[in-house]
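Quick question about two entries, pasted in order.
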Amino acid sequence: MTTATSVALQRLNSLLPLKIRQSALPPKLLSLHRATLTSLADRGRPPDREELHELLAGSDVDAALRRLADDDLVVLNTTGNSIAGAYPMTTEKTRHYLIVNKQPVNAMCALDALSVGPMFNAEVAISSECHVTGTAINIRMQGEALLEVKPSRDVHVGVRWQNPSACAAHSICLEMVFLKDQPTALEWQAGDRDNTSLFNLQDAVSFGSGFFVPLLQG
């Protein structure tokens, strides 16, 4: 991990301390959160209400959902009675479409899209687009390895730093984007270097892995 990537990881952990929040959960909720991540990766969907009852072994499902949502560890559906997603994956429609374990699911942002492969050591196909030009971006990964990148391996990830709202998926995640090449990335960043960071793809993978993999460990 480069120095710049390490600094960015510390910055994101300070803005969105998912691992710290997860570690503070009671055991049942910690297991539920990890089961949700695994379900999204394996089945393309989170556990449904019946499965939540089983996972919580009689505990109050709605109270559990409120706690996880208040900690921004999950995003709830519009009615608030079930899980729509858990960083880095969601069933909500986004610009970042994935195939993971042959199942379709969406990522909440460009960084999230690059993090699913490392989290589960899975083969992941990413279909997205350049935030500036709309150019199609397609990436195939195995774990942390970038197997194929189109239109070229010069694709970058840009992050526009901001304090997330109550739901990071609907705030800061919207400013973590793919950019088709370095010139486009520099154009996107122009005039706002203090509040933006740029990463080549391999550094972005390392950044995302460092942020998300710990959610499945310890």
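Here is the second entry:
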Amino acid sequence: MNDRIVLRGLRARGRHGCLPAERELGQEFVIDVVLGLDTRPAAAGDDLLRTVDYGALADRLVAVVEGEPVNLIETLADRLAVLCLDPPQVEEVEVTVHKPSAPVPHPFSDVAVTIHRSRQ
């Protein structure tokens, strides 16, 4: 079992969606990521360079959400997963993209897509 670094509830404004109003007005997205990696090398040397800097990762994730619009949150989740797998220490990732203001014509608390990706 891998160790995990978890970043939950990261908020950013994006213009993702299929409807023209979503592209024009934008909305808030909430991102959760769970990184699977071996943290022992970082812990043994107390060395940030041997793990994932979650502050820097948050900056990169927000840049993707705020960047080029896509139609589907599935596509957005995949782009975020690719970014999370960039550091060589990360073996696997789970990404959840929440779209709490999705254009659903009924009362709801959340719409989300969760994906799992690994190096294998």
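Reply: The longest helix spans residues 54-66. The CA atoms of residues 41 and 47 lie 8 Å apart. Hope that helps.
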